[in-house]
Structure formats: structure tokens, C-alpha cells
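Support request, priority: normal
Reporter: lab tech (M.K.)
Component: structure prediction queue

Hi team, I submitted a job for Membrane protein from Ancylobacter dichloromethanicus yesterday, and the status page still shows it as pending. I've pasted the exact input below so you can check whether something in the sequence is tripping the parser. The sequence length should be 690 residues. Please let me know if I need to resubmit or if it's stuck on your end.
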Amino acid sequence: MNLGLAFDPLIPLPWLIAAAVLAGAVALLVVVSRTRGSLLRALAIALAVLAIANPSLTREEREPLSTVVAVVVDQSASQDFGDRTQMTQAARAELDTRLARLREQGAEIRFIDAGGGAGEVDGTRLFTALSAGLADVPPERVAGAIFLTDGRVHDIPATIAALGFRAPVHAIISGKEGERDRRVALTSTPRFGIVGQNQTIGYRVEDEGAPAGARVAVTVRRDGEVVARPVVTAGQPAQVDVEITHAGANIVEIEAAALEGELTPVNNRAAVSIDGVRDKLRVLLVSGEPHVGERTWRNLLKSDANVDLVHFTILRPPEKQDGTPINELSLIAFPTRELFQQKIKDFDLIIFDRYAQQGVLPMIYFDNIVRYVEEGGALLVAAGTDYVSDGSVYYTPLDSILPAGPTGQMTETPYRAHLTQAGQRHPVTRALPGSQSEPPAWSRFFRLVDTDGARGTSVMDGPNGKPVVLLDRVGEGRVALLLSDHFWLWARGYEGGGPHIDLLRRLSHWLMKEPDLEEERLKMVAHGGDIVVERQTMGDTAPPVTVTTPTGVTRSVTLESAAPGLFRATFPADRLGLWRATDGTHTALVNIGPLNPREFAEVTSTTETLRPTVEATGGGVWRMADLAGFVPRVIAVRSGERFAGEDWMGLAMRDVSVVRGLGLFPLFAGLSGLLILLAGVAAAWAREGR
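Reply from support: The job had stalled in the queue. We restarted it manually and it finished. Here are the results:
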């Protein structure tokens, strides 16, 4: 209990001061005049002024508060290297034991786990965790903070005042002195690149704890595929040119060979994601004659802003020559030599829509098309009655690459096309809208070209299992054959129409090698806080995949069937950085957070990063490996500025309390005040009356 004196003036303070000054002057005049009872009169005047000041006796009931000690335990990914985790756990247990004596004295010990998981996107943030852990503690209650860490902390405050308290900060460092490590540092990282062109990446191999100048073998991968194996000098800048092969993210990894005795190979690899941008897809559409479904292809391709369409319709074949001079015709001559000889390789896709050989294209140009496909081009033949005629394109050199030949007959009965078993798995037709019901929820066709000797993959069939859509790979290129010319009925909404846009767009993009439409593909994507692994396959099962975390830990993941031809697995993304999955044949990559986490930039333990901040607070820095029990002795310090020694650390114990009750006794209130004033006046009157 504490006693005190408080004032609550009955008049404003300026008036009280004026009254006190006036009373003092009168009292001084009375004393100087040496009249009888002058001192008692001065006392009476003072009591009157004191009564106006309204003094009160106070009584405080206080409750002592505990001193708080914060212990921040670094659980970031860099603590997984070497034996740091074991050292930190042992140090935590020993420190808990040594702090027990402070608990007996009323101290509160708070252990704060910091770092770890995918939440730390900007390195190890121990001071942020410390501030959050002490958010409910007044600064005067904090006795100090102790960090159990490897020293790689990335949120050190610029000033001591930013800590929010005045108490010692100590750092106990895991790891060993003299650690060695090799890492790859990126110096130039382009963000975008044109598909088909090269981009230059700058990098440097740095060795810590080892002499500079070593010759280092480097492996460069693009989406998991090795593209270069240069040899560079450690500490010197280097560059590598990488071709951008597809639209979307092209993940390039630069990996240096391991350094003997190094701490970890995790940061021997750096990655950069370059977004591939297509310089417009060029498509050549050749219509053999005007027909009702011709606009379907044109409208579909023209609606895609990324497609540059060149469309020719043959209106005047050679057999319809009537002698009219060319310069009097309002028709554009078909530039066959320019298109099929000089610039054929500029096109990403060639489409023959109901085209029959009428002498417009010489046979040598069909040979050019065959070579174009075998070298990586794409050909789509939308067939109709033209395919069974004597002028069928099958009776040209294209027969070597077309997946089926005509029998000369056509099926002309109403039917609904169905997805084949392969079509239910193929990315072009899998889950095609309307295919889930029986019969499929799309309109009927009325014509089908009969074929034999079909090869490749039939994804859609008609009556008696006859193929409607055939897909095939030829050399480096791809070929598709549509054996009905009634897909335009879907576009016109006949009998409710059908998914012509989905089918034809997927088909054209598969021909142009869109990665998402590959039949055999392994893909990883980040979804919220999880990683999803997907395997597209034409097989009945998918083998387990091996997933490698950013820290190099591997795990086997079993994929579950999610749809025909699609297998999937989901697991938490508990580490930042580049994740890798492989099934032995295919490789997939996904990045969580920054491609090259700050956490892995420098992984050797150090006492120097925290030393300036620690010493500015009077604390100390030690290595666990140099101390008995991994921690120094703990001493409670009541006063002084020194809180650390060679083998001890001090904590500033606080004497802090909070007021739980307050009692007031006004001295001049009521009868007591009246008696005091009367006593003063009576004493002065009595003395004067003698």
C-alpha cells in the first residue's frame, strides 16, 4: 500500500495561483508589520488558500506484474542444414531449464517459434515474430529477448528504438564456424521472351569459405530438359543463351556442381521464369470451294486475336476457264508458289477445307507440305465428298502422312458422334461439353466418309465404330483428319447445336503443340496453400511421382484418378522455392513464392549479422558449439548497463506493478475542513485578544 497527497482545486488553476500570490502578499505584509498574532494570521490565510486547493490523502493498492523474457526460436528452412535443428532443440531445452529460477522469482518466459512453412516470403523474420509475441506486453515489463538462430535474419531493425523496448537482446548461434557453401547468384533475369528466340541470362557462381577462382561445371535446364553445360570460373560473371520454346512460363534452372564439404547443395541451383509470348500464330486456310460450313472455320480462327489467318477460297478452278482475261476478273490469283514453297515454314498450321485436287497445286507442292509436317508443322484436313472423289488429296504425296484413306463410299444416315475410349482420355476431347450424357447432348450429323487402314488415334466415331476424328503424329509434326463435313450444324444451332468452338479450338491448338493439350504430360500447379500434381495419360494407370522439395528432400506421391486420362494428387506447399516432380519420363516444376528465396541465398551460419544490434542493447553473441549445454549461464540483473560476459547473459529484471485500488480522503471537506479553518482563525483571534 502506498500513501500520497493529491490536489483537486475548487477553482481554475490560474485563479488559484492568483489567490495564492495575493494571500502570500497579505501574509508577508502582516508578518513585516510585526503586529500581535501576525504568524497565526498568516497561517490562517494559508489554510484558506489550501482549502481552495482541496488537498486529499491518497492510498494506492498495487499488484506486482511479472517480468517477461522472450525466447525466439528460428525454425526457418536454413535451420534444416547440417545439425542445426538438433543443436537448437537441445539449446531450447537447456535454456528452459536455466530460466526456471527466474520463473520462481515471478518472471514469465515466452517461447516464440518463428519462420518455417510457406508464409515467410521474404526470408527469416525473427524481429517481426518478436514484436507479435510481445504485442500485449508493456515495454517496461520486458526483461530481454533471446534468439536461437543461425544468424541469417532478414528483418533486423535499423535503430534500437524500433525494437519497442529497452532491454538486452542476446543471440545464440547454431551451426559451426568455417562452414563452406557454393551458390548461384543471378545477375540478369529477363521476364519475357518471344517464342522461338533466345534470351540471355546473367549469373555468377560464388564460393563461401573456399578460395575463389575454381573452375565449376554448370548445367542449364529449361523445364527440366538440359540445354547447356558450360564451365565457368567461381566469382566471375557468366552468361547463357536459352531459347524460349513455348508460350507461358519457361522455367530455366542454372545448377553448379557441388563443392566438396559444402553445407548444402540446395542453393547450388538458381531459377528464373521467362514468360514466352507468341508472335501471333500464322494459319493458312484453303477452301476448295464455297460451301455452307466454310464460315465456321473462318469465324473461329478470326475470333482469336492471337491468330494471323490467311484464307483462300478457290472460286474458279482451271476446268472452269472461259477465256476471260485475268486482268478483267475481280479475283485474287492464288499465290501457290509463294505460299507452298517460299513461305510454307512461316505457317504454324495448314488447313485444307473440302479441298479436291483440281490442278491448282502442282504435286511438288504436296511434297513440300509432307516435308513441312515431318519437320514439325501441322496439317488439318476437313474432308467431305471431296475426299472420295478422284481428285482427293489422299491421291497425292499427302497419302504418306494422312491417317486414313477413303474407300470411295460414304455413310449418309443420321447419327450422333460419340467419344471413343481414347477420346474420353485425350485432352482434345476429354470432358467435351455434352459428352457426359447418352446419347451425347449435341446435334446429329448426316454424312461420314468411309475409310480403311486408319492409324493414329480415333477420338470420335460414328455408326459401326467408323472414325469421325483422327489424330496422328508424323515425324516432328502432327496431322488431324475430320471425316464429316457437318460440324457446321453445331455452329448453326441445329437440334441444339454442339460444342464446335471447344472441339475445333482444342484441335487446332493441339496441332500447334499447346503444352496443356499434350496426351502425356506431368503438370504441377499451386492452388492456395497446396500443390496439385496432374498426370495426363492415354493409359489406364499413372505411376507414382517423386516430388523434390526446395530443400532437396524427396517423397513419393501416389496419383488418384480424377477423370478418364487424368490423375491427380494434392499436398501442402510447406516450403518456399522451386518444387520438382518426375515419374521417370516426364518432369514438372512449380514455384512457391519467390523463385530464389532469400532464405537460401546465404546459408552459412554467422555471428556478425546480429552483432551490431545485440551489442547496442548491451547483449551478447555466442555460438552454441562453444558453450557447455549449448547456452550461456543466465543471470538476473537488477541494475547496470552490462548484460553479457564470456559465458553468461543477463536479463534486466523489472519492478513493475499495476494499481488495483485507490482511496481518497479530502482534508478540507465537510466537518474536518471546517474544524481546521476554525482552528486557524480561532488561534489568530485568541492571540490577538491577549
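The longest helix spans residues 13-32. DSSP finds 13 helices and 37 strands in the chain. Let us know if anything else looks off. Ticket resolved.
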